[in-house]
Design brief:
With about 625 residues, the protein is an alpha+beta fold. Helices cover about 30% and strands about 25% of the residues. It binds sulfopyruvate and manganese (II) ion (MN).
Length: about 625
């Protein structure tokens, strides 16, 4: 092991004995052959890029000089929930794996023993949220994967200088090793894949995996730490996009949005004509009595499956530009990137996450291997997007948050757009009651509904009752907490046909923007406020140049009482026996009462035309 003096000097310059001791401890344990300490310099960044290619973890593509491809092991294509655990001293956390802290640490340390022999250890420094702001949280990443470090340089703000400028700051720690690699340079020992989160020491350990959702420390590993920190400190760390919606006369209003996967989160924050700030993670704080939000990240690790020119022009423009992109688990043919949805497919040969690929190729289990994996991704800086709100992204105090949007996927419950009666009603009946169909529903039948409060269940590192309690308190401390909205792009008729076009979400956003300022009226229903037909008719014309018929409106905004009551029943059951704020059950009771009362008067299906507007 030769640790270069130049690299050690970069660490020493930070004058942070605790940090130094931490890095030295992991050098001793993992025994890397060499060390590279990444400052914020362009030179250090280029070194990381070069190493990723030299090590074979990324390969140059031929469409643009800054496009590369990375493959994860065939069985390492997504977050590994089974082997992810929160380390606790006996505390059980509902919905999530926990493991005894001492046992977990012993196991991970033994897996890490000597794991970096023959490898270079990279140490890199990042900030969650804009640098030097009330939102920033510093993070130290140790990894032997230049691909991971490269991805982090695209997705986060580097922060070596912040560490240096501050008096021994507190920081999150991420220790990752991809472990032994196979001939394709993908993690080999997947049976020893582990992601252990030590909340007490704000440290996440990840071994024997490369997939970004497991390994990119600042992303989902850090998210478990920030949820706990936010709950302890009275702010919000959310699985939410952040976007600006253009209102009348140059007004811009900012919204966050939480959607379970495959419910339209990315396509909403990229609706043409609006302003993108972030697509995945937001921090929200009370600053001067006002809710303000930032994007935690500086880039996008987005799903590429199905991305096409017609529905995703914004993303297509970026992927066909010279901007730096890491494609992962796509199909490569003659140095060009392909994925389902991209013109040029079908091809009859290529290379993908399963190695050499040809149509109808089967894996060992006999399953046909698609050209690109469903969770194939692209990693790109936000600056590559024309629609990026360049003022908002680095605003030190964030942007004022006008509202939050919760999006589900349901065939017959939520209408396309609805505003909660207020903060408490919204937090409980929209956020904490979020659910989504899991399977692609068979025509005419509802899919299986999966409960996913605030789209955050996979990451819920605190008991859910505490998390909801903190949420309720957050809004109570403000005169004007963010308005809460719910959307559902997946309503169907009795024959299983979707009731909305994909482009309709552009109209719901404009309605939400106007409604948040009290510029449009609404109809009061048992579940919240819905739009008035005439307002939508005008918006459809203005935004999409389309006629919007009374028949469509009535079908989409009919209140389906039995399905809504069933939904509340399912959510109640999910929370049964848990230590949750009493508002949770009282809000559900009140909504059931309102629904039943309305049903007695109007029947099971309530047309919006029979209800009075405000
Ligand atoms: C998600 O699954 O919510 C993602 C991708 O954003 S991952 O980084 O894998 O979590
Ligand atoms: Mn996510």
């Amino acid at each position: 092991m030769t640790i270069s003096q130049t690299e050690m000097a970069k660490l020493e310059a930070l004058d942070h004995p605790e940090l130094m001791e931490f890095v030295e401890r992991y050098i001793d344990l993992m025994e890397p052959e060499s060390l590279f300490v990444c400052t914020d310099s362009e030179e250090d960044y280029q070194y990381i890029r070069k190493r990723a290619i030299e090590e074979g973890e990324e390969r140059q593509l031929s469409d643009f000089p800054l496009h590369t491809v990375h493959f994860d092991n065939y069985h390492d294509q997504a977050r590994d929930k089974k082997n992810t655990a929160i380390l606790t001293d006996g505390e059980e956390i509902p919905f999530i794996n926990t493991k005894d802290r001492k046992e977990g640490l012993e196991e991970i340390q033994s897996l890490m023993k000597g794991i970096m022999r023959d490898r270079e250890m990279i140490v890199a420094f990042f900030s969650l949220g804009p640098r030097n702001s009330p939102f920033s949280i510093l993070g130290l990443q140790i990894t032997d994967s230049p691909y991971v470090a490269h991805s982090e340089h695209i997705l986060y703000r580097t922060a070596y200088e912040e560490f240096k400028g501050m008096e021994r700051p507190r920081f999150f720690r991420f220790v990752h090793s991809e472990g032994e690699l196979d001939e394709r340079r993908t993690s080999k020992n997947l049976d020893k894949r582990r992601i252990y989160i030590d909340l007490k020491n704000e440290t996440v350990y990840t071994v024997n995996t490369q997939y970004g959702g497991n390994t990119i420390g600042l992303k989902k590993p850090a998210f478990r730490l920030t949820i706990r920190k936010a709950t302890d400190e009275g702010w919000l760390s959310e699985h939410m996009f952040l976007m600006g919606v253009n209102g009348p006369d140059g007004r811009v209003s900012y919204f966050t949005g939480a959607f379970p996967s495959m419910c339209g989160k990315t396509s909403t924050c990229m609706v043409p004509g609006e302003r993108l700030v972030g697509d995945d993670l937001s921090f929200i704080r009370n600053i001067g009595g006002e809710a303000r939000a930032v994007n935690v990240e500086n880039g996008i690790f987005g799903i590429i499956h199905g991305i096409n020119q017609v529905e995703d022009p914004t993303i297509c423009r970026v992927l066909n530009s010279p901007a730096e992109v890491i494609f992962s688990n796509i199909l490569v043919n003659d140095g060009m990137p392909y994925w389902s949805g991209k013109p040029g497919l079908p091809l009859d040969v290529g290379e993908n996450h399963g190695g050499e690929w040809y149509p109808k190729k089967k894996d060992k289990e006999g399953n046909e291997i698609p050209p690109s994996h469903k969770n194939a991704r692209f990693t790109v800086r936000l600056s590559a997007f024309d629609s990026l709100d360049r003022d908002a992204i680095d605003a030190e105090n964030g942007v004022p948050l006008k509202g939050m949007i919760f999006g589900g996927r349901a065939a017959h419950t939520w209408p396309p757009v609805c505003e909660a009666f207020g903060w408490e009603h919204g937090v409980i009946m929209k956020g904490a009651s979020l659910e989504s169909e899991t399977t692609a529903a068979t025509l005419g039948k509802e899919g299986v509904m999966k409960f996913n409060p605030m789209a955050i269940l996979d990451f819920m590192s605190v008991p859910i009752g505490r998390y909801i309690g903190n949420y309720l308190e957050f809004g109570k401390k403000m005169d004007n907490p963010p308005r809460i909205f719910a959307v559902n792009y997946f309503l169907r008729d009795d024959r299983g046909n979707f009731l909305n076009h994909k482009s309709d979400k552009a109209v719901w956003l404009k309605w939400i923007e106007l409604r948040a300022h009290g510029d449009v009226g609404a109809i009061e229903t048992p579940i919240g406020h819905i739009p008035i037909y005439d307002d939508l008719k005008q918006l459809f014309k203005e935004v999409l140049g389309r006629e919007y018929s009374k028949e469509d409106y009535e079908k989409q905004f009919t209140i389906n009482v039995p399905e809504l009551l069933d939904k509340i029943g399912r959510v109640e059951e999910a929370y049964l026996g848990m230590d949750v704020p009493e508002e949770l059950f009282s809000q559900m009771e009140e909504e059931k009462e309102r629904l039943k009362e309305a049903m007695n008067f109007y029947g099971e299906r309530i047309s919006p035309f029979s209800l009075g507007s405000l």
